[in-house]
Amino acid sequence: MSETLTLRRPDDWHLHLRDGAMLRAVLPETARHFARAIVMPNLVPPVVTGAQAAAYRDRILAALPEGMAFEPLMTLYLTEDTDPADVAAAHASGLVKAVKLYPAGATTNSASGVKTFENVRGVLEKMAEIGLPLCVHGEVVDSDVDIFDREAVFIDRVLDPVRRATPGLRVVMEHITTSDAVDYASAQGDDLGATITTHHLVINRNHILAGGIKPHYYCLPVAKRETHRLALRKAATSGSKRFFLGTDSAPHTDANKLLPCGCAGCFTATNTLSILAQVFEEDSALDRLEAFTSLNGPAFYGLPVNDETITLSKGAAVTYPSQIETEDGPVTVFDPLTELHWKVD
Ligand code: DOR
Ligand code: ZN
Asked: Which pLDDT does position 187 carry in this prediction?
């Protein structure tokens, strides 16, 4: 008899859908399994205003294949010129579910991000007042800070001071990669959540750098040493409501990954649920997978859990494409370095 696992339909609390041909190619990979996703606003140019978010939402829905259901949860890209009134209106209309903070220069298309936090004080105070969460890319960008320390330093130098200065601000620490972030998140109250990606549960920095450089494992924040990966596994599989899935599935064409200066991002939308089921099974936590993928995120965002369910069954090795074809060129699917045996029915 085959083993099966039924879960409330999952949501992805951190996703890059891009635009145009790339959007059309990657959207079905997420919509096949996920009901909703927090959609990142780091397009070129970024999604800064409510009007831009509304237009982007329309383009996403227009790209959705017939017969598929998917709800994009829109975000605004925080700049030092962001207008608190526009943010409040976009939230009040139900369009926008979070504002995204990129420290300027931290990652892909973050040039318009924040340099001086004093300049976004008004927006953050408005967000605290209306209960709109701030999703944070938590890395400092100072060139004198080692790239493997950027998350831990950010918590001390930026995140904690900003939270203390803005009581009531709801914050999501996104794609956490360190035991420092796990410890910090675990010690906070219900106004803080933390997302964990699929790939950071699977790879450590050796996978990127040992035995030849592997651009498809390069993402930001970069994967850290094994002790940090194990801390992330423990947090994700703990069932704690503080932690939920944000895949940060971030498609780039192979042409843009395999360069002397290649783009950061792992594309995991296609096989995320098979990988997660395997990770949770390995850690004897299959009964807590649903909390991570389907319950804790809606609870943090104050949204209902999905009515529908999905069923995974365990059997022969799952097959999935190693690449997704797009009109811009192929996008390589994340390789979890092992056969997967849980398949979404
Ligand atoms: O690896 C990443 N890719 N990290 C980010 O923060 C951005 C993302 C992207 O947009 O490609
Ligand atoms: Zn991201």
From this structure: 98
| CA–CA dist 275, 289 (Å, integer) | 11
**Each residue's pLDDT tens digit, 20-63:** 999 999 999 999 999 999 999 999 999 999 999 999 999 999 99
The average pLDDT across 108-129 equals 92
> How many Å apart are CA 19 and CA 269, to the nearest integer?
16
Considering every ligand atom shown, identify the ligand nearest to the alpha carbon of residue 221 and give its number: 1
Per-residue confidence band for 107, with pLDDT thresholds at 50, 70 and 90: confident
For the chain, where are the E strands, in sequence order? 4-8, 11-15, 36-39, 71-77, 96-101, 134-136, 171-173, 192-196, 243-245, 309-314, 323-324, 331-332, 342-344
216 lines ligand 1 (CB under 6 A): no
| Atom number in ligand 1 closest to CA 137 | 6
Q: CB of 248 within 8 A of CB of 15?
A: yes
Does 18 score more than 60 pLDDT?
Answer: yes
* 280 Cα–ligand 1 center, Å: 25
Catalytic residues: 248
The CATH number assigned to the domain with range 3-344 reads 3.20.20.140
Place of tokens 């803080």: 192
Q: Among all chains, which residue has been given the structure tokens 């105070």? A: 125
